Amino acid sequence: MSTTTPSSLSIHEEEVNFIKYFIALKHGRAAMVRVFEWGYQGGHPIKDYLLTRPGYSDQKFESDFNPNQRRKLSSSTPDDVESYDISLLYALLQMACGLAESRNTLWNTYGQTLENHLYRLKQLRNNVIHEEQRLTEQSLDTKLFELQNLIEHTYQHAASSFGKSCQEVSQLCSELCQKFAGIKAKIREPLRPADLIQLHELQQELQIFGDHIKCKIKQMGAQELYDQYQKLYMIDPVPWLRLGINYRPSIAFTELTIQEDEVMCGHSSQGKQARN
């Protein structure tokens, strides 16, 4: 079965289901935006706030963000946050919202924590690029149920962490329920012409995400090579000082005994006696 669009583009039913799942994932990003707005502890531009953190520097800023992200953070306004992609939002949530440090296992250890909920939302979105872009009707229904449940729990944990009211959370969850009900109701319906914009947007976001991954690989590869080259030409003339060893420098030298080679010098002991 296929759905024919006005542009005569043939899209299979399972491809349509994948696009609908991609549309639903945008609500996960919207939840991360809301959590950031609730928890952000600084002003704008965001770069200025990051540089006030203990131990943070311009060099760290350059290593943490790619050129496009650095431009955004260097001139950010409150309204800009809604346009940030999930990778950038996740990095900012780790750095600027008073949550656990990025190296803390709370983020990637499955559990009922805000950190892990945010991590799972990011992973769901980023995994789209690696998945087969087809979904059966049953798979779509399952994914939508799990995604909606995860977003609702994210709102609840974030509200608890940042002191937001139960009424605000209830309103957000009610709106989310209506939006997902609309997506589920259309599972058996073809895409509307306006929905095809999402297909183009999906292709664009996949390209952006791919570029981001390439940039990170280049950065990590350059750092790895730098670290390896450092080891290759390491010079340590006095290692005992660094290791705390009680060492006598005199034993590092060889005592020389110089003895004349009479043959090489062109005379012998007999010659000496004759001269005498």
SSE order and pairing:
Blueprint: E1 2-4, E2 10-12, H1 13-39, H2 46-50, H3 58-64, H4 67-74, H5 86-96, H6 114-127, H7 137-162, H8 166-185, H9 196-232, H10 239-243, H11 269-275
Antiparallel strand pairs: 1-2
Helix pairs in contact: 1-5, 1-6, 1-7, 5-6, 6-7, 7-8
Percent in helix: 55-70%
Topology pattern, helix = H, strand = E? EEHHHHHHHHHHH
Q: Oligomerization state of this entry?
A: single chain
Number of helices: 11
What is Rg? 33 Å
Brief overview:
This protein is mainly α and 276 residues long.
Quick tags:
2 strands; 11 helices; two-stranded antiparallel sheet; 61% helix; disordered N terminus; 276 residues; mainly alpha
Structure description:
The structure is a single chain. With 276 residues, this protein is mainly alpha-helical. The chain has one domain (2-230). Helices cover 61% and strands 2% of the residues. The chain is built from 11 helices and 2 strands. A two-stranded antiparallel ribbon has the order 1-2. Helix 1 packs antiparallel against helix 6 (114-127). The longest helix is centred in the last third of the chain and has 37 residues, at 196-232. The chain is elongated, with a radius of gyration of 33 Å. It starts with a strand and ends with a helix. Mean pLDDT is 81; it is low at 1-9 and 271-276.
